[in-house]
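Our consortium's second objective concerns turning raw sequence data into structural hypotheses that experimental partners can test. To show how far this objective has progressed, the report includes one record in full. It was chosen at random from the queue rather than selected for favorable results. The single chain below, 172 residues long, was entered without modification.
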Amino acid sequence: MSEENNSQKQTPPQPENSEASSEIQKLQEQAEKFKNDYLYLRAEFENYKRNAIKERSELTKYGGERFIRDLLEVVDNFERALAVNVAPENFATYKQGVEMTAQELKSLLQRHSVLEVPSHGAPFDPAVHEALGSEPSEQVAPGHILRVFKKPYKLHDKVIRTGQVVVAKKPE
């Protein structure tokens, strides 16, 4: 009797009608379809991650290309200025050319969202300025900037270089 019980337990239950069998077949096909869809989406996501990493790497590597191309135009102008033999007769035009090149450089920085932060006479801001010292002055209010050694610059809204300044203090 125990052999009969074992053989009955080992045989899988058979569906009693073909309707249940076709339902099981449909569910198995649907499960297989979901599995294939999942594997396809997983592979697509892996490709997306790989491409995103590659794009980020290229952006880091070549992100400044447009800026550098524009900057090279200014470098060319400086090199032409250095090639000129400066004499008393052409000093005024030489100086004018160097000033125009400097203005071109400032314009280039502005086009690329690099802006100078006006500082002279402005209140001292430790997020934008580095105080090199303080001097008594009646020209500027105490706590305001008396002299600027290095101008501060922002790229969009971020300070990319703090200014080095001397802060005015009340005369004694």
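The partners drew two points from this record. DSSP finds four helices and six strands in the chain. The CA atoms of residues 23 and 29 lie 10 Å apart. Both points have been shared with the crystallography group to help prioritize constructs.
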